Amino acid sequence: MDGLIAEIIPIITDDKFIISFITSVFTFAITSGFTICRDRGKEKKDLKQNRSKLAKALYSEIKAFIDMYQEYKLTKKLPQNGDDIKIVRLECNYVVTFDNNTDKLGILDEDDIPRIIFFYMQLKSLIDTLMVLAERWEKYASYCNANAPTTQAKDITIVRILKKNIDDTHKLAFNIQEKVLKDAGEALSALEKYKQKA
Predict the structure, then answer these.
(1) Mind listing the pLDDT tens digit for each residue in 133-190?
(2) Helical residues (DSSP H) of the chain, grouped into ranges
(3) d(CA 95, CA 78)
(4) pTM for this one?
(5) Are 127 and 94 in contact (CB under 8 A)?
């Protein structure tokens, strides 16, 4: 064993070995540093691209719904003639992009996330309220058609109750609608900056 150590010591203390060893350590350190910097740069680029993709998708979904909804927008007062009523029955899911990407919202700026979530919660509330309004209109129309020429107090009372339910639901839907349209502007402006950064 002493013979082996005696052979190794001159090699380790040799100037060429020391220079080679230091060069190897220095090269490893520089290469590792460049690799880390390159990986961090790639992560930042990926984050920016993912933010941009998510923002574009949410922006498009919000814009499409608002553009489509303008045709069905409620008036402040409920029309007296039932024929003038547009019954909005929203059968499909208008928030698919949001629902499928809620786990990715964290890549957006902290200040923007509440604005986007609040808009979607208001939108879902509007959709639910419009569904209730459509159901109440259908129930009212069905009852009136079945009991059209009646003057019995019981039927008149039921019609009034059904009509009041419609009026109350319409007012609620109108108020939510106004909030949704206002909040849509804020959500769209929050998402707009990500489209510009890309």
Answers:
(1) 888 888 888 887 777 666 676 777 888 888 888 888 888 988 998 899 889 999 999 8
(2) 2-13, 15-69, 96-101, 112-146, 153-197
(3) 27
(4) 0.69
(5) yes
Q: Are 47 and 108 in contact (CB under 8 A)?
A: no
Q: What residues have CB less than 8 Å from 12, skipping those under 6 apart?
A: 18
Angle at 163 between CA 80 and CA 172, to 5 degrees: 90
pLDDT in tens, 8-60: 555 555 566 566 666 766 666 666 666 665 656 666 678 888 889 999 999 99
Cα distance from N-terminal residue to C-terminal residue, the chain: 65
Amino acid identity, residue 67? D
CB within 8 A of 19, min separation 6: which ones?
none
Instruction: Report the interhelical angle of 15-69 vs 153-197 (nearest 10°).
Output: 150
| Contact assessment for residue 88 and residue 68, using Cβ atoms and an 8 Å cutoff | no
One-letter amino acid at 9 equals: I
Cα distance between residue 78 and residue 112, in whole Å: 35
Task: Look up residue 194 and give its amino acid.
Answer: Y
Six-digit token string for 87: 């019954």
Residue for token digits 């058609």? 145
